[in-house]
């Protein structure tokens, strides 16, 4: 049998949607123009709510300048090689130190990508004697990291702390026999629902159980907490989070990631995280660009204030108009509607074509059958007018949805 046959014919759950309307419309859409709320899609201006550019740094003039100047000075090749061999620089070290200090930790380690970085960290932290316990709604990169683990792994229903406690008791019995330890993994902000991981409650379990806590705070870094240091700061449990991880792909509007913790464990990671020791280091423009982003994030609280002004306006207006936005406590704003996949496609088409609103839509199997989740990501560079325009559009499409206008079998060009 040709190994490719089943793959090409089955397409996979996501591949299945490739040709709804046409590829490039719902899947792999191309937004054009500078990264800002108003961008171009298929030749028209659309109001975008689907970029994790929380603080608006992607197109910030100082950021663009730092990116351009460092690219001109160093190019994208510099430094060549893995950091452990030849690809280190004073800027890489400076960035690690500044990130660690900002999130209240002793040491930090840069990672080239969030996804492979956290997978590799999980892989580095455990051996077959250890037990991993993780939240059921964890991001794919955590799930994939856990999949590499050769020992026992237990999952607890999302934020179900009583169940987590049961898993800790199970894990303790196992580690008492194997001589291993326990690693608990959760997220600071869950990127789909906007819910926060209950870091406060998880941290309090440390009084009864011995475990280490790794938190992926991809959506919390820069958005949550008094200074933007993330969900651990928000809950006041910086010390109880043993390893704090975030990507640069959201608030930092770039590529790269980091992990921070006590100096001893970070030193171990530095010499053992396989995705870093066997890979070329982050290019200099990304490192210098990250230093500039971090400086703005730290010194310009206005960015976070603007973000939260838009978040509060958007979420309170949606609630006032009767929309179900779930349990979000962060900028991530899901709007939960009901209908089949076809209904969802028709509704999103109408939003894009006739209301010029571009947001992401999530349907089964990511959410339960017949749930349509429109996911809005407010940013510091949206305006209150953008919010009002969007609320009016959402009211109009939800009215049409209730009246069955999107239930036709075929995708409608205009409604
Ligand atoms: C919670 C979470 N962790 C990790 C990642 C992966 O980060 P990266 O894009 O840097 O690979 C993402 C998505 O970007 C994410 O949402």
Write the layout of secondary structure elements.
Layout: H1 3-10, E1 31-32, E2 38-41, E3 44-48, H2 61-74, H3 90-102, E4 107-111, H4 114-125, E5 131-135, H5 140-147, E6 152-156, H6 161-178, E7 182-187, H7 199-204, E8 212-216, H8 231-235, E9 243-247, E10 257-261, H9 263-272, H10 274-277, H11 284-299, H12 301-320, E11 333-338, H13 341-354, E12 357-358, E13 360-362, E14 371-376, H14 384-402
Parallel strand pairs: 3-12, 5-6, 5-7, 7-8, 8-9
Antiparallel strand pairs: 1-2, 2-3, 4-10, 9-10, 11-14, 13-14
Pyridoxal-5'-phosphate (PLP) binds at residues 113-115, 139, 141, 187, 191, 216, 218, 247, 249, 257.
For the structure shown, list the relevant keywords:
415 residues; alpha/beta; Aspartate Aminotransferase, domain 1; Aspartate Aminotransferase, domain 2; 2 domains; seven-stranded mixed β-sheet; four-stranded mixed β-sheet; 15% strand; globular; binds pyridoxal-5'-phosphate
* Oligomeric state of this protein: single chain
Radius of gyration, taken over Cα atoms and rounded to an integer in Å? 22 Å
Uncertain stretches = none
* Annotation field: number of helices: 14
Number of strand elements = 14
Task: Provide the spatial order of strands within the biggest beta sheet.
Answer: 4-10-9-8-7-5-6
State the order of secondary-structure elements, H for helix, E for strand: HEEEHHEHEHEHEHEHEEHHHHEHEEEH
CATH architecture of the largest domain: 3-Layer(aba) Sandwich
Main beta sheet: strand number and arrangement? Answer: 7 strands, mixed
Ligand catalogue: pyridoxal-5'-phosphate
- Give the number of domains: 2
CATH level-four homologous superfamily name of the largest domain = Type I PLP-dependent aspartate aminotransferase-like (Major domain)
Counting helices, strands and paired strands, the structural category is alpha/beta
Give the rounded overall mean pLDDT: 95
CATH class of the largest domain: Alpha Beta
* Helix content class: 40-55%
Strand content bin: 15-25%
Distance between the termini: 47 Å
CATH topology of the largest domain: Aspartate Aminotransferase, domain 2
């Amino acid at each position: 049998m040709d190994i490719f046959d089943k793959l090409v014919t089955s397409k996979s759950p996501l591949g299945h949607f490739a040709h709804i309307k046409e590829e490039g419309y719902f899947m792999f859409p191309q937004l054009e123009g500078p990264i800002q709320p108003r961008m171009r899609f298929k030749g028209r201006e659309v109001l975008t709510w689907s970029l994790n550019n929380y603080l608006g740094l992607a197109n910030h003039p100082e950021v663009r300048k730092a990116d351009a100047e460092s690219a001109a000075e160093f190019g994208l090749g510099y430094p060549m090689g893995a950091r452990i061999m030849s690809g280190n620089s004073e800027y890489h070290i400076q960035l690690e130190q500044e990130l660690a200090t900002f999130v209240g930790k002793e040491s930090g380690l840069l990672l080239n990508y969030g996804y492979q970085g956290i997978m590799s960290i999980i892989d580095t932290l455990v051996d077959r004697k250890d037990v991993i316990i993780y939240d059921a709604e964890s991001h794919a990169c955590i799930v994939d990291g856990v999949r590499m683990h050769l020992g026992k792994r237990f999952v607890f229903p999302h934020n179900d702390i009583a169940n987590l406690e049961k898993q800790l008791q199970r894990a303790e019995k196992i580690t008492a026999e194997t001589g291993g330890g326990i690693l608990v993994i959760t997220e600071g902000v869950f990127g789909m629902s906007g819910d926060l991981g209950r870091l406060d409650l998880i941290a309090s379990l440390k009084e009864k159980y011995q475990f280490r806590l790794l938190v992926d705070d991809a959506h919390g870094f820069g958005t949550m907490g008094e200074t933007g240091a993330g969900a651990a700061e928000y809950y006041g449990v910086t010390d109880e989070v043993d390893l704090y991880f975030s990507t640069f792909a959201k608030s930092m509007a770039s590529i790269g990631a980091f992990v921070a913790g006590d100096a001893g464990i970070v030193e171990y990671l530095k010499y053992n995280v396989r995705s870093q020791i066997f890979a070329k280091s982050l290019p200099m423009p990304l490192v210098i660009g990250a230093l500039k982003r971090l400086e703005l994030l730290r010194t310009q609280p206005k960015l976070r204030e603007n973000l939260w002004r838009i978040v509060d306006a958007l979420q309170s207006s949606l609630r006032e108009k009767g929309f179900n936005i779930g349990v979000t406590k962060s900028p991530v704003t899901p709007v939960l509607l009901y209908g089949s996949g076809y209904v969802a496609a028709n509704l999103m088409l109408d939003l894009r074509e006739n209301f010029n609103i571009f947001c992401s839509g999530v349907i089964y199997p990511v959410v339960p059958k017949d749930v349509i989740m429109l996911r809005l990501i407010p940013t510091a560079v949206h305006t209150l007018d953008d919010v009002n325009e969007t609320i009016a559009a959402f009211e109009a499409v939800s009215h049409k949805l209730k009246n069955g206008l999107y239930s036709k079998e075929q995708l409608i060009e205009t409604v």
